[in-house]
Design brief:
This protein is of the alpha+beta class and 203 residues long. Helices cover 30% and strands 20% of the residues.
């Protein structure tokens, strides 16, 4: 038996209660996420929050093109859940980075990380659509305009890309589509209700 377990067994109920009361209480995932909203707004970011019974997502956009996304998932770690923070450096292109909450205020006000903080690139995407991935709605909108202009100039017969949408499988990805409707879930249902028997979502 480990030393930690031995110490735990020797604690009286009163000692265990005193220890637990001295620990800082971790906020539920939703409260962690919403606590960052005033900080971002005060720094001049435009903030949008979407909620789902299992997940809440905060999207923040800066005039420089930088972006912040925070997801609160109540399925992870405990019944309280956990909040994950992702950032895109200006001008909002490249790969999403993971960010610790203690560094969010620095990034929100200065648009870069502290010099002693490592860049943690998110290496894997849940998206298996096979389509081109755009990191933000703004980047997808710009790509949509470029594609429309190119096809008009070249006279392509293919149906034009009509709009962009958020990938149902990965919050950090946007795609273009020629479909008039569909893909309108405010919070990706494939991620909110994972089914191990179901193959990866095809957008």
């Amino acid at each position: 038996m480990s030393r930690a377990l031995l110490r735990e067994e020797r604690l009286t109920p009163e000692e265990r209660a005193a220890r637990d009361s001295a620990r800082p209480q971790r906020l539920p995932a939703d409260e962690q996420l919403r606590a960052f909203e005033p900080l971002l707004r005060a720094a001049g970011w435009e903030v949008e929050v979407s909620a789902h019974p299992l997940r809440t997502r905060l999207d923040a956009f800066h005039s420089s093109g930088a972006a912040v996304m925070i997801t609160a998932d109540r399925r992870r770690r405990s019944n309280r859940g956990s909040a994950s923070i992702y950032i895109l450096h200006p001008p909002g292109s490249g790969a999403w980075r993971r960010l610790r909450s203690v560094h969010l205020a620095h990034f929100a006000t200065r648009l870069h990380l502290p010099p002693d903080v490592r860049d943690h690139v998110v290496p894997v995407s849940k998206c298996h659509c096979g389509k081109v991935r755009h990191p933000t709605a703004a980047r997808a909108a710009a790509a949509l305009a470029q594609v429309a202009a190119k096809r008009a100039a070249e006279g392509e017969a293919r149906p034009p890309e009509r709009r962009y949408y958020r990938c149902e499988a990965d919050d950090r990805v946007w795609h273009l589509t020629s479909a008039i409707s569909g893909y309108t879930h405010p919070v990706p249902l494939a991620d909110a209700f994972p089914d191990p028997r179901r193959p990866p979502t095809i957008c």
